[in-house]
From TrEMBL:
The lineage of its organism: Bacteria, Bacillati, Actinomycetota, Actinomycetes, Kitasatosporales. InterPro entries: AIG2-like_dom (IPR009288), GGCT-like (IPR013024), GGCT-like_sf (IPR036568). Gene3D superfamilies: Gamma-glutamyl cyclotransferase-like. It comes from the Bacteria. It comes from Streptomyces morookaense (Streptoverticillium morookaense). Keywords: Transferase. Residues 11-139 form the Gamma-glutamylcyclotransferase AIG2-like domain. This is Gamma-glutamylcyclotransferase.
């Protein structure tokens, strides 16, 4: 983990880590203190093989949730999420990059800094060239967030 990783930012989730999805129970249930609906501006969702990819795009919005991890579990859970998301800093085989972004809470519009897993550059290039976007920016389909 880099020094910036020690800041305990919440995590913005938009795919299989969302409440009700398979990886939420495996990685997050009982290890969070808050789950709040939110929107990430500046990204578009693309279909993946059973999960989505968020790709930076100034015109897009992605719907999801801000997950606040329990302080006692923070480092362990974040490290597990990095493995799940195949986030390997500096490795060209990474599928996702974990980056800090501003996310807006649904309803209040309050800005929150959060970790977001965006498609790594090589994946993003392929998706922009030939990927299928997720309509409405919500995966696995319309959600009331």
């Amino acid at each position: 983990m880099t020094p910036q990783d020690h800041r305990q930012l919440p995590v913005f989730v938009y795919g299989t880590l969302r409440p009700g999805q398979c990886n939420h129970d495996l990685f997050l249930r009982g290890r969070t203190t808050a789950v709040r609906p939110a929107r990430l501006h500046g990204a578009v969702l693309y279909e993946g093989p059973g999960y989505p990819y968020a790709v930076a795009d100034p015109a897009g919005d992605v719907l999801g949730e801000i997950i606040t991890l329990a302080p006692a579990d923070y480092r362990h859970v974040l490290a597990a999420l990095d493995v799940l998301e195949n986030h390997m800093p500096g490795d060209p085989a990474s599928l996702y990059d974990r980056v800090e972004r501003e996310v807006r809470l649904t309803g209040s519009g309050e800005a929150v800094r959060a970790w977001v897993y965006l498609a790594a550059d090589r994946v993003a290039r392929r998706l922009r060239a030939s990927g299928t976007t997720v309509p409405g920016g919500s995966w696995p389909g319309p959600r009331l967030t």
